[in-house]
Design goal:
Layout: E1 2-10, H1 14-31, E2 38-49, E3 53-63, H2 70-73, E4 81-89, E5 92-98, E6 105-114, E7 134-137, H3 172-175, E8 180-190, H4 196-220, H5 222-225, H6 230-253, E9 266-270, H7 273-278, E10 299-303
Parallel strand pairs: 1-7
Antiparallel strand pairs: 1-8, 2-3, 3-4, 4-5, 5-6, 6-8, 9-10
Helix pairs in contact: 1-4, 1-6
Length: 306
Amino acid sequence: MLMKEYRICMPLTVDEYRIGQLYMISKHSCEQSGGGEGVEVVRNELDVHPQHGPGQLTEKRIYLSSKLPSWAKAFVPRIFYVTEKAWNLYPFTITEYSVSFLPKFSIRIETRFENNNGDNDNVFGDTPTPAKSVSFLDILSDPIPEKHYKESEDLSRWQSSKTGRGPLEEGWRDDHKPIMCSYKRVECSFEVYGFQTRTEDFIHRNIRDILLVGHRQAVAWIDEWHGLSLEEVREYERAMQEKTNSKVKSSQNTDPPAATRPAFSRSISVTDERSLKKMGVTTAAMSDPSASSVSPSPIRLNSTPE
């Protein structure tokens, strides 16, 4: 398991970001949906977390097959989704990700928001994150993938007409008022022999990009959401969820009927029973390779997901 803590400062207050976060997530999800991929909201309702009490529970399906690296596409279905469950207990949130056909895969993100510039070294109140595992992300100067860059979201050029804030300048985190920090403790695990390190590194690189883009957008779009009440932004959220779900489902419904597609088969090569057990697979008894003069070839598992 690979754990990191990310700290992202914004020129906002924690109370302001409660509205901005809901607006940003809804709008961004809608923008990124289409062509059979994107975010489908399964439920969004009040619920009680067993440890932290009442809050808002959101469950989503994130379709992203085309965004996988080529080495990962070799062992996942052509169309699959990641399940996201998020408890909004503001100013604390918990988000968990899972994939049905990969029981060894998980991501857990704990987030706490505070009105400071990221100087709280034990914000979660248990065990401080080792300094080597803490990354400060700068929404002004840290690079993002070129495909996500928009001049209107460049915070070195941004200025809010409603609040008078911006543009941001080098060293802004040291003296900007207001300022808040989003502390995110991210644990990701992919306990499959031969893929663990590569996959966990890939996940953290993508999480970094997502955090930078999302927090930049929350600030850049401030004139769209600033002044909205919680009830108003929740109504916007419901409208955007309906639109987003419609975009995802309509694209999937235009695909060829399932019967006309070849059945998906994923293959993974392993050379011994011990490797199989690490993947959570129970095997039938294998012949003793010492009984044959022929070198044993790798066992290839072929399975069709449910």
